[in-house]
Fold:
Amino acid sequence: MIRSTATSAGPRLARAKAAYTTRHVRLAELTGLVQGTPSAGDLVLARVTEIGQHKRLETPEGRRATLFVGDEVLVCFANRYAPDQFEAVVPLDLEPCDLVAAGGVAATTVSLHADMAKPTRLDPIGLVTTADGNVANLRRWRLRNDLVGPARPWMIAVIGTSMNAGKTTTAAGITRGLTAAGRTVGAAKVTGTGAGGDAWLLADSGASPVLDFTSVGLASTYLCDPDVVLDAFHTLHSHLAASGADVAVIEVADGVFQRETAALIASAEFAERVDAVVFAAGDAMGAMAGVAHLRDLGLPVVAASGLLTCSPLATSEAAAHLPVPILGLEQLWAAHESICPALRPVDELLASSA
Structure:
């Protein structure tokens, strides 16, 4: 890996539009730019050369900053998996590439959905360095992975058929219902591509803290080694436990057959920590197949929800074939009894771990 000597660029970096994926980065520690071979998680200063699909960049605070040709942006190299948008990979060099996620992911597009416009184009100026001369990677600011909480919170996992199946809306509904019922809820998104919309919705629904994989040094989990994803899961869970939350709501991105999701939900460690699963689907067949698949993995599926609940016809069709209740948002907001007491009631767990 060849990297040239870094040039001083502190003020220039401070003026750049910083993306959501950099939200844990201490910007004052960024000092220079260097040429070299990028790796997933590396920070890069890039110039916008053409506006395409993504016309705005989400900032660390959640604001959608309008992009203009000529803007300099601070984003991260990472891979992306999004069936409804882009598949993209970290490029082999600092040649022009694409902005493939509004949260701030730079990569080379492999394929895109037919409804997508061509990607916004970026011209990388250089990899960002810190005062020690090392390339700044999100791992530098990750949460500790050796934290031990006072007690293990009762964990509800939200898994779904695919992107846009309604997983985040379901997780937010569960969170709202439990907080309204007096529970303290922490939430985390374990896999996916860096973007703040899901985290902001979970926070607005009452979760605190709200974490995601960017908190553990990952701009995206696509093509990560399974051990890296499992470490992210453990670390996020342990920090939710340490926060004092008595319920942890965990969202797993994309669908059950997506590479990283499939490996995580099939792991013994995931099964040991999850107390209830709510499955989000867009139609009856997806709900039936997904619930059956998760039960075959030994996971405690207690309810189905998601986009299908927008349609009374789809809901009744699914209800005729599912062994678990189907919960719409109003039922989730009411902290439906099928979620709270499932297998290991919250009060019993808290009493046993006190």
